Amino acid sequence: MSTSVNSDLYTSLGLTAPNTTATSKNKGSLDQADFLKLMTTQLQHQDPTKPMDNSQMVAQMAQLSTVQGISDLNTSVKGFQESMASDQVLRGAALVGHDVMVPSTKVSLEAEGGTSGTVAAPSAGTVTVDITDANGLKVNQLTVPANAAGEVAFQWDGTNADGQRMPAGSYTITANHTDSAGEQTKLATYVEAEVESVTVGSDGLYLNLKGLGTAPLDYVLRVS
User: Which of 57, 51, 19, 20 shows the shortest CA–CA distance to 35?
Assistant: First the structure.
């Protein structure tokens, strides 16, 4: 009698009855087969005058399926995150040796040559870039026309206002835009720097930029 009840119950739920000869599994947790076994045992021993409510059984099965679905989803998401992390490392490694443009208020000047950067002008006008040294003293000011709204590039040859070569090191830059009405707007500055290496942090990948320090991979606006 009990065998018939078990078989009918599994069939009505669209499930296959478990194989009693299957190898034993870890009993540290309950799966659907265990839940069904408990439920059929309860059916066998229920009071005929007080039968079990079918809606309660369905609700319990739904809860079990939901928990199992969440567990499977967590496993899938974890695997996806690990795959994305590996892909991010490969992307960062491919940038080593290349120049990238990132937002920065600093520029690094080498012993020879100059440095460059970019601002986004809100409209036509004039862009001025002030360059100060580590002591806060202004060493030069660059003036670049902005013909329209958009990207405006600037270059510094590494000399001061008198044309003298400045020592290698880190310099601070501030940019302002002046429109035709004389209104000034402070602009964010973006500079180019070489990627020397990459570092994997707990919150993502960081690029180690020559003369500028570290910057998150998400900060990269352009690769050259």
Answer: 57
- How many residues are given for the chain? 224
Yes or no: say if 180 and 124 are a contact pair by the CB < 8 Å rule: yes
pTM to 2 decimal places: 0.60
135 contact partners, CB below 8 Å, separation of at least 6 = none
Report d(CA 66, CA 217) in Å as an integer: 37
Measured distance CA(32)–CA(43) in Å, rounded: 16
Backbone phi, then psi, for 17, in 5-degree steps? -60, 140
In tens, the pLDDT along 171-185 reads 999 999 999 999 999
Alpha helices in the chain (DSSP H): 2-12, 32-44, 54-93
- Residue 112's pLDDT is 92
Of 208, 211, 174, which is closest to residue 219 (Cα–Cα)?
A: 208
Q: What is the spatial distance between Cα 222 and Cα 224, in angstroms, rounded to a whole number?
A: 7
CA 115 to each of CA 133, 135, 188: distance values in angstroms, whole numbers, following the listed order: 14, 20, 17
**Three-point CA angle 98, 168, 164, nearest 5°:** 125
**Mean pLDDT across 153-171:** 94
Q: Are 145 and 153 in contact (CB under 8 A)?
A: no
